[in-house]
Amino acid sequence: MPSGIDGKERGRVQTPDPQPDLPDFTPEGAPGASRRLDARTEQLTTGVLLVRARGPIDKNTAFGFERQLIDAMGRSSAKPLHIRLDLSDVTFLDRAGLNVLLRVQARLEGVAGELRLVKPTPSVVRLLHQAHLDGVSWMWPSD
After folding, report:
1. Could you give the CA distance from residue 17 to residue 30 in angstroms, rounded to a whole number?
2. What global pTM score does this model have?
3. Omega cis (within 30) before 80
4. In the chain, what are the helix, strand and coil shares in percent, each to the nearest 5?
5. Which of 54, 55, 85, 135 to pair with 91, CA 20 to 30 A apart?
6. 38-140 CATH fold
């Protein structure tokens, strides 16, 4: 895989735990907009695994994001596992990102767990609607 100027592989999400505070980001499509996805995981005292995603979940970031979710699922001691995926700062979701969500949901259903989407942005809701997935039980209303 080609390397960037800093020697890191492109197309991989690098999200070490724990992450430092994230800087403000430029809106999608603006000059200097970041194509990086940042995701943080937090095990809540209720046993819920909260995942906060920020940036695009697309063909360039989907694989790394899925690996991070699967790794976090494996580290969680909660059984069954309930994941709340906060999408309020997701700038873009494409088919590759949607496929990640569907695979994680299927994996969780196989072990009596669940995935709930929290505060999806209008662009995420639009894709879910186009895929006829906007009425499924995984949508969690804004609190």
Report:
1. 29
2. 0.70
3. yes
4. 25, 25, 50
5. 135
6. Transcription Regulator spoIIAA (3.30.750)
